Amino acid sequence: MIATTENANSSTLDVVKQEKVPVEENFGKVYNSQMLESKTCYSNCITNLDNFDKKISTPLQSYTPNIYIEIFFLIFAKIFNTITVIVYLILILLYSLFFLKNIYIFITVFFHVIFGVLVTVIMKKIIGRERPTLLVKRYFYKVRTNETMNSMPSGDSLQAANFCMMFILYFENKIKFFSILFIPMSMFGRVFYCCHYWFDCFVGAFLGLVISYGSYFLINKLNLNNF
To answer: What are all long-range contacts of 216-223, with beta carbons under 8 Å and residues at least 24 apart?
Structure first.
C-alpha cells in the first residue's frame, strides 16, 4: 500500500510538472510577443515621423536661389553659432557692468546658455540622428560640411529662443518684439543649409524657451538678482 501511495504521489507530481511547463512557456511567448509588438509599433512611429520630417524639409533644402538671397540665409544660419553666442555673452557682461551696474542679467543669461549647451550635447548623443545630406550646390557649402555633431535638437534654434526670451524678459523697449523674428529665421537658415530638419529646429526652439524662462524663474526665486 505504501509503495502504491508513493507511486501515486510521484505520478501526480509528474502530471503537475507536465501541466506547468507548457503554461509557463506559453506565458513567456505571449509576453515576448507583446513586447515585440510594442517595440515594433514604437519603431514604426519613429520611422514614419522621421520620413515625414525629411519630406517637409526637402523643398527648402533643395531650393537654389541666387547668391544674394543665399547670403541673407547665411546670416540667419550662423547668427547663433558658438562664436556669435560668446560675443553676445561678452556684450551682455559689459552692458551689465557699465550700464546697469548689476551683474544679475549676465548671470541669468550665462546660466541658461551653458545649460542649453549641455542639454543639446546630451540629447544629440542619446538620439543620434544623422545630419541631412547636402542636396544641391550651395555657395557657402561649408556651413553644412563643418557640422560634425548629430542633428537633433538644433543648438542654434535653442540659443535663438534663449536670447529672444532674454530680450522679452529684460528689455522694456520695442526690440523685444523684433527679437521674436530671430527664432523662425534661424530655423529657416538651418534647414536651408541642410544642417537640420524642421523637427530638429522645433525641438531646439521649444527647449530654448523652457530653459531660458526656467533659469529666469529659478534665479529670481533664489534672489540671485540682488548681485
So the answer is: 216/108, 216/112, 216/165, 216/169, 219/104, 219/107, 219/108, 219/111
Cis status of the peptide bond prior to 132, with omega within 30 of 0: no
SS3 label, residue 139: coil
Same-domain pairing of 40 and 100:
no
Encode the chain (227 residues) as per-residue pLDDT tens digits.
444 544 544 554 454 444 444 444 554 555 455 555 556 776 777 788 888 989 999 999 888 888 888 898 888 888 888 888 889 888 888 888 888 777 777 877 888 788 888 999 999 999 888 888 888 888 888 878 777 788 889 999 999 998 888 778 776 655 666 778 888 999 999 999 888 999 999 999 999 988 888 877 776 766 655 54
pTM for this one? Answer: 0.75
Cα–Cα dist 195/69, whole Å: 18
How far CA 37 is from CA of 31, 43, 46, 119, 225, in Å, comes to 10, 10, 14, 31, 52
User: Hey, how many other C-beta atoms are within 10 angstroms of the C-beta on 117?
Assistant: 16
How many structural domains are present in the chain?
Answer: 2
Q: Could you tell me if 13 and 85 lie in one domain?
A: no
Cβ–Cβ under 8 Å, residues 222 and 94: no
* 77 Cβ contact list (under 8 Å, min separation 6): 143, 156, 186, 189, 190, 192, 193, 195
Nearest to 176 by CA among 163, 166, 167: 167
Tell me which residue range forms the domain holding 117. Answer: 62-226
